[in-house]
Amino acid sequence: MTPPMAVAVGRELVASYGSFLFFARLAPNLLLVACTLLDPWAGLLGLAAGLVTLLTRRVLSLPSAGGMEGGNGMLAGLFLGGVFAPSWASAVLAVAAGPLTMMVALFASDLLARGRLPLLSGAFVPVAWLLTGVGHALALPLRVWPAEAPVDWLALPVQDFLRAVGGIYLTPTCVGGALVLAALAWSSRTMVLLTVLGFGAARLTSAGLLGLPAALPASGAAATAGI
Questions:
Q1: Helices 26-36 and 40-59: angle between axes, nearest 10 degrees
Q2: Which pLDDT value is given to residue 208?
């Protein structure tokens, strides 16, 4: 690979982080990269899987899946890095997500294009599900996540919100949420407003219908839907 091609692939890899949020600037994408690297193991596997996805497309001269394939590969690697404990086997599994994501992304984008729908992050879900099953079949050890220490100077609802926003990039921490929120604000203040509304709607709905505090994954999903 020539230096100009390596630079082009690197730029495309960074841009893929915000592809399904339609980020057009470099800075918001770099904030998302920083967010995923708060967990170095998962973040590096995300980078590796995204890179292999893009290289698979170039080596095989495949068409792009609307520019969404790199981001889906990254999310698949990030997810697997968060599920399985660090090992060579889990690293190989995450890297294998690259070519698999490329194939799934092309197939899914072709189907969705018939309904004039974008792929967004739809390819990483089946790939992550399939490879998680493979990891379980291989008896790979799971990661043990310590609970994040509470941030005394932040109100609990704000902490819950930041963790939910960080969960969009599979980094459910206050710092991760702050980085994702900064990336959203840099790109579009409307996205920030929709994220707040989505999270708030989830909390109100859960409290009103179930009489229980909103579950963080549900709030994170609602924040994503709001975007």
A1: 130
A2: 58
